[in-house]
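Hi Q.,

Before the meeting this afternoon, I wanted you to have the zinc ion prediction in hand. No need to reply - just skim if you have a minute. The sequence and ligand are here:
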Amino acid sequence: MKPWLFLMVLTPPDQDHPMHELSLCYGLLDQVQRVAEQNQATLVTRITLQVGPLSGAEPDLIASAFTVASAGTVAEGAELITERAPVIVVCNECGERGEVPTNKLLCPACGGWQTRVESGDELIMSSLELEKDDAVDETAENEDKVKPDV
Ligand SMILES: [Zn+2]
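Predicted structure with the ligand bound:
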């Protein structure tokens, strides 16, 4: 099994949706399905997701929604790892770029409030581990070879 690395930004849908995390998971699974098909993968074993604190998505809720959304897909039973992504702002006053606390989006250099969020409001699928068909074929061949000669 080889790990396959990808970097994708998933656009958060309508923030007011009552099942926010569930719709995020369907979006995630669309991407996962596409990557799995492109690589002729039969199974997705692990997904690493970076969750921006400003995305409005809770990692715990994503994990439980993923279990529901992935049922019957290529990613059913996959391990979902959620990592908290940093909030990065750029200052419009002095041009400084840096990580800030979620509840205080001020410039880390001059303390100015005229900042724009560069990242921290999105979900990023940072890695995906797939299992491919050829591994299954190899196993089948090995089984044939160990058949005893009668
Ligand atoms: Zn500044």
